[in-house]
Amino acid sequence: MLAKPGTDVGRHFKDQEVSYADLPYRAVAEFTKAVCGLVPNTVLGAIASIRENTSRLIAHLSRELDAPYLTHRALLPNPDDSEQLLLSLIASECRAVLEDEDVGQFGGLGWLSTWIESRNLSFPLNVSYGNISVKLTDPGSLKRLLEVGAQAHLQESSLSPSKRAKAAKQLGELDLTGLLSDRNKDESPDALFALLTTQRPHYGANAPILTLGSILRDNVGGTTHYWVCIQPKCDAVRVEKRRRFLFLPLEPSPDNRFCTVTFDQGKVLKLRRTRKPYEITSFTFPASANQVVRASRVGDDFLFSTTSKKKLTWLGQLRDEIAQQIAHDVSTRLSRVGANPSEWLRYAERRLLQG
After folding, report:
1. Rounded to an integer, what distance in angstroms lies between the CA atom of residue 302 and that of residue 293?
2. In angstroms, rounded to a whole number, what is the distance separating the alpha carbons of residues 322 and 314?
3. Which is nearest to 294 in space by CA: 226, 204, 219?
4. Model pTM?
5. Largest CB tally within 10 Å, which of 182, 188, 235, 238?
6. 46 to each of 33, 101, 102, 113, 314, how far by Cα in Å?
7. Mean pLDDT throughout 303-329?
């Protein structure tokens, strides 16, 4: 918020007071500050590409499709399901525009030097791979790391061969985010990016529905439990009266072994899941409108209520491909064949598989 000249805003906000003559320059400066970065630049490029191709999108998704769309709607057992297909078609068309316009280039190699120069970094930088450090002496060495990737950069480093090999094994412990980030390390930018890549954001005011990939929390006897729904999507719709939903338990991870992150009460929560099919449980939910199970808003939370009045708090929704990966892993383990061969033969086969 910017204040007009002479406004009584208090001394703490005096720097927000702007003269009329300076307003255009300040507006540009504030906008630049808001969108400065590789990711925001790419977002702006994406929005611009969609706007430039609006007429083509409308021409491709024209009114001539109304009749077959309505026929599709009429043939569905639950006609409202047609709305989700329409959304997926529009999203697919928008993605095609972004790919054809090569919007990803705004986060690519051509912008690295500009981005590094904007950071005011103090060189040399010590980049850690676990307990092994690589020194970056100048902006050029940082750019080289970002250009070729950590693995190739290690092979080019002055480390001894044994240390290079050890660092390569500790690639997952690369500590680069803390050196390059504006945020305090307690805010975990890596966790925020992980959240972005694995969970679908919730922008709207509509309450979420229960489906494959929904992450829920409950509290029984003072103990908190976390669950991820593994119900197939096709079994999460056309719910008549009530239906059982399948869940896999998640547990907070005390170390660095976890498979997903979410936010719970404003804090980053690292969770790991079991791979054991016998840990699967189920809860029964009553149907909401449109034959789905929809949460109710209570304060700032979304709650699902079971038929036994158990309350589960919605924490987030995994992206489709992530949720499907979990369900596939569980179903694969369900299909294991319990053969009982000779132990001598089993050990020989294990040696064969280990190569």
Report:
1. 12
2. 17
3. 204
4. 0.80
5. 188
6. 19, 9, 9, 22, 30
7. 93
